[in-house]
Amino acid sequence: MNSRKSFVEIAKELNVTETAVRKRIHRMEKNGTIERYSIDVNPERLDLGRRVLIGIDTTPQKYITIIQIMKTKKEVLRLYSSRGDHMIMLECWMKNVEDLDKFERYLRGLDGIIDVCPSIIEGIIK
Question: pTM of the prediction?
Answer without folding.
Answer: 0.69
